[in-house]
Structures are given as C-alpha cells and as structure tokens.
Design goal:
Layout lengths: L9 E2 L2 E2 L20 E3 L4 E3 L17 E4 L2 E4 L8 E5 L5 E5 L6 H12 L4 E6 L12 H11 L3 E4 L5 H10 L15 H6 L2
Parallel strand pairs: 8-9, 9-10
Antiparallel strand pairs: 1-2, 3-4, 4-7, 5-6, 7-8
Helix pairs in contact: 2-3
Length: about 190
C-alpha cells in the first residue's frame, strides 16, 4: 500500500538490516540479538554486548523466567545501547541501564564501527548500590583511557560514581537531570 513502510527481513529475535550484514561476525551467529549498523554505517544498535573487562561481570542475583522456572541470569543479555558516529569526532554511545558495563559497551561499539575516538558517553552506567560500588574505581580508570569529550551519567549510575567522575573529568562531566537536553555535536566541538 502506498505510504506504508516495508519491513526489512524480520526473523524471530533478530532484525536483519541490509547494510549491517557485512559487520556481523561469524562467532556471533548463534546470538539472539546481533549488532546492526543502520543509516549507512552511522548508527549502531549494539545488541548483546560482550563482557570483556575483568570488573564488569554482571548482576549477581538477577533472574529470568526460562522454561517455566526462574533461573539465574547475571549477564542480562538483552541489554542494548545506541551508538552514533560523528565521523572524525568519534562515537556517541547511549546506554540504557548499562547492565553489560559502560566500558564493555563502549569497547563493543568501537569494534564494528572502527572508531577508537569517543566523543560522548551518555546514559545509565549501572554503578549504584553496594553490589556495584566496588567497580566504580576501575570504571573511572577505564573511562580515563577512553577519554570521552562529554560524559553524562544518568539514572542508575549512582551519586558515588557521579562524584568520582565529576572530580576526575571536570571538563567532560555533565550532570544529567530530568529535562536535560544534550547537544553532542556542540559539546564535542566546544561551541
């Protein structure tokens, strides 16, 4: 029908995007959700994020209903992020709750995009509460290595992590509050 959008190759659990196929890695074929590059390689939906850092290992105590019973699910594999490439300026990484760990998410985004430069990291970093407070220090150190121009931790990051990030990254840190508007292009360009 005229004016209606046409679905592009939907499979159960996996959205297939024409421009993304070349970026899918053979070792990820068995995953339920895969990374997909959209809009001519400028936008990435992460899909399942690898746990590669020694400190971002999951959410102990989390459970999921599987085969009719509650089972441990510490990795929360359905967590996703959105990544936008600003070309030479680097990547803007937007996380939801960051269950995979914000550093894992950024590292994961760097691989298929080919960008090492990080313009901005925005969203939940999941560092709140006694279970995650021990990894605030290693996370802040790893963020320093990533050197984002803009760092905007949100809802589940926690005040202790925000205090450490504000102290460590005074020029990049922006406190996110309800109603905040972030213009990543302007912030990265220094306008």
């Amino acid at each position: 029908m005229e004016g209606e959008a046409e679905a592009v190759g939907f499979e159960p659990y996996v959205l297939v995007f024409d421009v993304a196929c070349e970026y899918w890695w053979a070792d990820q074929v068995d995953r339920l959700v895969r990374a997909g590059l959209l809009l001519d390689g400028a936008v990435l939906i992460t899909g399942e994020v690898d746990r590669t850092t020694p400190f971002e290992t999951g959410f102990q105590g989390h459970q999921a209903m599987r085969e009719g019973s509650w089972q441990n699910d510490p990795l929360i594999l359905d967590d996703q992020g959105l990544v936008v490439s600003l070309g030479d300026r680097g990547l803007v990484v937007l996380s939801g709750c960051g269950h995979a760990g914000i550093v894992n998410t950024v590292h994961y985004a760097q691989r298929p995009t080919g960008h090492d430069n990080v313009a901005a990291i925005v969203g939940g970093f999941h560092l709140s509460g006694p279970m995650f407070e021990p990894i605030i220090g290693p996370t802040v150190e790893a963020l320093a290595d990533l050197s984002p121009s803009l760092l905007v931790p949100a809802h589940c990051t926690g005040w202790k992590a925000c205090l450490q990030m504000a102290a460590r990254f005074p020029d990049a840190f922006v406190m996110s509050t309800v109603g905040s508007t972030i213009n990543a292009l302007r912030a990265v360009a220094g306008c």
